[in-house]
Design goal:
alpha/beta, Rossmann fold, six-stranded parallel β-sheet, two-stranded antiparallel ribbon, disordered C terminus
Length: 192
Protein backbone atom coordinates (compact mmCIF):
# COMPACT_ATOMS: atom_id res chain seq x y z
CA UNK A 1 0.00 0.00 0.00
CA UNK A 2 1.28 3.45 -0.89
CA UNK A 3 1.49 5.92 1.98
CA UNK A 4 1.09 9.66 1.52
CA UNK A 5 1.58 11.99 4.45
CA UNK A 6 -0.73 15.01 4.32
CA UNK A 7 0.32 18.12 6.24
CA UNK A 8 -1.93 21.11 6.87
CA UNK A 9 -0.12 24.34 7.68
CA UNK A 10 -3.11 25.54 9.67
CA UNK A 11 -4.03 24.65 13.25
CA UNK A 12 -7.60 26.01 12.98
CA UNK A 13 -10.31 23.43 13.66
CA UNK A 14 -12.29 24.81 10.71
CA UNK A 15 -9.25 25.08 8.44
CA UNK A 16 -10.05 24.91 4.73
CA UNK A 17 -6.54 23.55 4.14
CA UNK A 18 -7.25 20.63 6.45
CA UNK A 19 -10.67 20.15 4.83
CA UNK A 20 -9.06 19.89 1.38
CA UNK A 21 -6.61 17.27 2.69
CA UNK A 22 -9.48 15.34 4.29
CA UNK A 23 -11.25 15.32 0.91
CA UNK A 24 -8.05 14.05 -0.76
CA UNK A 25 -7.84 11.26 1.82
CA UNK A 26 -11.50 10.30 1.35
CA UNK A 27 -11.15 10.15 -2.44
CA UNK A 28 -7.87 8.22 -2.49
CA UNK A 29 -7.82 4.81 -4.13
CA UNK A 30 -8.33 1.89 -1.74
CA UNK A 31 -4.66 0.87 -1.94
CA UNK A 32 -3.37 4.36 -1.12
CA UNK A 33 -3.40 5.64 2.44
CA UNK A 34 -3.40 9.41 2.92
CA UNK A 35 -2.79 10.13 6.59
CA UNK A 36 -3.06 13.68 7.89
CA UNK A 37 -0.36 14.50 10.42
CA UNK A 38 -2.21 15.44 13.60
CA UNK A 39 0.52 16.93 15.75
CA UNK A 40 1.91 20.03 14.03
CA UNK A 41 0.92 22.25 16.94
CA UNK A 42 2.76 20.01 19.40
CA UNK A 43 6.15 20.36 17.73
CA UNK A 44 8.30 22.72 19.83
CA UNK A 45 10.19 25.66 18.34
CA UNK A 46 13.20 24.49 16.35
CA UNK A 47 16.29 24.35 18.53
CA UNK A 48 19.35 22.43 17.26
CA UNK A 49 20.56 22.06 20.86
CA UNK A 50 17.59 19.74 21.49
CA UNK A 51 18.61 17.54 18.57
CA UNK A 52 21.94 16.09 19.62
CA UNK A 53 22.62 12.34 19.31
CA UNK A 54 19.02 11.43 18.54
CA UNK A 55 17.62 13.30 21.53
CA UNK A 56 15.00 15.31 19.65
CA UNK A 57 11.61 15.78 21.37
CA UNK A 58 9.19 12.87 20.93
CA UNK A 59 6.80 14.95 18.79
CA UNK A 60 9.67 15.72 16.41
CA UNK A 61 10.68 12.06 16.25
CA UNK A 62 7.08 11.07 15.47
CA UNK A 63 6.90 13.66 12.68
CA UNK A 64 10.21 12.55 11.20
CA UNK A 65 9.11 8.92 11.29
CA UNK A 66 5.87 9.68 9.45
CA UNK A 67 7.75 11.67 6.79
CA UNK A 68 10.34 8.92 6.48
CA UNK A 69 7.73 6.17 6.10
CA UNK A 70 5.68 8.10 3.55
CA UNK A 71 6.09 7.43 -0.16
CA UNK A 72 5.00 11.00 -0.88
CA UNK A 73 3.87 14.17 0.86
CA UNK A 74 0.83 16.38 0.24
CA UNK A 75 0.87 19.87 1.80
CA UNK A 76 -1.88 22.50 1.99
CA UNK A 77 -1.00 25.66 3.86
CA UNK A 78 -2.28 29.19 4.27
CA UNK A 79 -0.20 32.28 3.66
CA UNK A 80 0.37 34.53 6.66
CA UNK A 81 1.87 38.00 6.08
CA UNK A 82 3.36 36.86 2.74
CA UNK A 83 5.00 33.87 4.42
CA UNK A 84 4.67 30.16 5.05
CA UNK A 85 2.72 29.47 8.23
CA UNK A 86 5.01 29.45 11.25
CA UNK A 87 4.01 25.98 12.46
CA UNK A 88 4.68 24.45 9.05
CA UNK A 89 8.04 26.17 8.60
CA UNK A 90 9.01 25.15 12.14
CA UNK A 91 8.18 21.49 11.43
CA UNK A 92 10.15 21.58 8.18
CA UNK A 93 13.12 23.12 10.02
CA UNK A 94 13.18 20.05 12.27
CA UNK A 95 13.62 17.89 9.14
CA UNK A 96 16.75 19.73 8.02
CA UNK A 97 19.08 17.81 10.31
CA UNK A 98 17.76 14.44 9.09
CA UNK A 99 18.88 15.06 5.54
CA UNK A 100 17.19 12.06 3.94
CA UNK A 101 13.68 12.86 5.20
CA UNK A 102 12.50 14.52 1.98
CA UNK A 103 15.36 13.51 -0.31
CA UNK A 104 13.86 12.77 -3.73
CA UNK A 105 10.41 12.26 -2.19
CA UNK A 106 7.50 13.41 -4.39
CA UNK A 107 5.73 16.39 -2.81
CA UNK A 108 2.54 18.09 -3.98
CA UNK A 109 1.54 21.54 -2.74
CA UNK A 110 -2.07 22.69 -2.78
CA UNK A 111 -2.90 26.39 -2.67
CA UNK A 112 -6.43 27.05 -1.44
CA UNK A 113 -6.45 30.81 -2.00
CA UNK A 114 -6.33 32.33 -5.50
CA UNK A 115 -5.23 35.67 -3.98
CA UNK A 116 -2.03 34.33 -2.44
CA UNK A 117 1.04 32.92 -4.12
CA UNK A 118 4.05 34.29 -2.25
CA UNK A 119 4.06 31.65 0.50
CA UNK A 120 3.14 28.94 -2.02
CA UNK A 121 6.17 29.80 -4.16
CA UNK A 122 8.35 30.13 -1.07
CA UNK A 123 7.22 26.69 0.08
CA UNK A 124 8.28 25.26 -3.27
CA UNK A 125 11.74 26.74 -2.75
CA UNK A 126 11.93 25.37 0.80
CA UNK A 127 10.99 21.85 -0.29
CA UNK A 128 13.47 21.95 -3.18
CA UNK A 129 16.23 23.22 -0.87
CA UNK A 130 15.51 20.20 1.34
CA UNK A 131 15.95 17.98 -1.78
CA UNK A 132 12.26 17.15 -2.01
CA UNK A 133 10.83 16.57 -5.48
CA UNK A 134 8.05 19.13 -6.00
CA UNK A 135 5.66 17.56 -8.50
CA UNK A 136 4.55 20.63 -10.45
CA UNK A 137 1.64 18.88 -12.19
CA UNK A 138 0.23 17.78 -8.81
CA UNK A 139 0.81 21.17 -7.19
CA UNK A 140 -2.24 23.22 -8.00
CA UNK A 141 -4.57 26.00 -6.99
CA UNK A 142 -7.78 24.63 -5.50
CA UNK A 143 -10.13 27.58 -6.14
CA UNK A 144 -12.39 27.47 -3.09
CA UNK A 145 -15.41 29.77 -3.32
CA UNK A 146 -14.56 31.28 0.10
CA UNK A 147 -12.36 30.64 3.11
CA UNK A 148 -15.21 29.30 5.25
CA UNK A 149 -16.11 26.39 2.98
CA UNK A 150 -16.48 23.08 4.82
CA UNK A 151 -15.43 19.51 4.10
CA UNK A 152 -19.03 18.60 3.17
CA UNK A 153 -19.31 21.57 0.80
CA UNK A 154 -16.05 20.64 -0.93
CA UNK A 155 -17.14 16.99 -1.23
CA UNK A 156 -20.44 18.16 -2.69
CA UNK A 157 -18.77 20.35 -5.31
CA UNK A 158 -17.92 18.19 -8.36
CA UNK A 159 -15.30 20.53 -9.84
CA UNK A 160 -13.42 20.98 -6.56
CA UNK A 161 -13.59 17.27 -5.85
CA UNK A 162 -12.25 16.46 -9.32
CA UNK A 163 -9.44 19.03 -9.00
CA UNK A 164 -8.30 17.57 -5.68
CA UNK A 165 -8.58 14.02 -6.99
CA UNK A 166 -6.59 14.91 -10.13
CA UNK A 167 -3.78 16.37 -7.99
CA UNK A 168 -3.73 13.24 -5.85
CA UNK A 169 -3.71 10.94 -8.92
CA UNK A 170 -0.77 12.87 -10.37
CA UNK A 171 1.15 12.62 -7.10
CA UNK A 172 0.43 8.88 -6.97
CA UNK A 173 1.68 8.46 -10.55
CA UNK A 174 4.88 10.28 -9.63
CA UNK A 175 5.38 7.99 -6.63
CA UNK A 176 4.76 4.91 -8.78
CA UNK A 177 7.38 6.09 -11.25
CA UNK A 178 9.86 5.78 -8.36
CA UNK A 179 8.41 2.43 -7.19
CA UNK A 180 7.68 0.44 -10.37
CA UNK A 181 7.21 -2.78 -8.36
CA UNK A 182 3.99 -1.32 -6.91
CA UNK A 183 2.73 0.11 -10.19
CA UNK A 184 0.55 -2.74 -11.34
CA UNK A 185 -1.82 -2.82 -8.36
CA UNK A 186 -1.97 0.88 -7.55
CA UNK A 187 -2.32 2.07 -11.15
CA UNK A 188 -5.26 -0.28 -11.59
CA UNK A 189 -7.16 1.31 -8.73
CA UNK A 190 -6.13 4.96 -9.08
CA UNK A 191 -9.01 5.62 -11.43
CA UNK A 192 -11.50 5.39 -8.57
Amino acid sequence: MLKILAISGSLRKASVNTAVLRVAAALAPSDVEIAIFPGLGGIPPFDPDLDINGSAPSSVLAFRQMVDEADGVLIASPEYAHGVSGVLKNALDWLVSCTLALYGKPVALLNTSPRTSIAYNSLKDIIRTMAGNVVEEASQLIPLPNMTVTYDQIMGHPLLRERIQACTRTLIASILDLHPEESRTARGSSSR
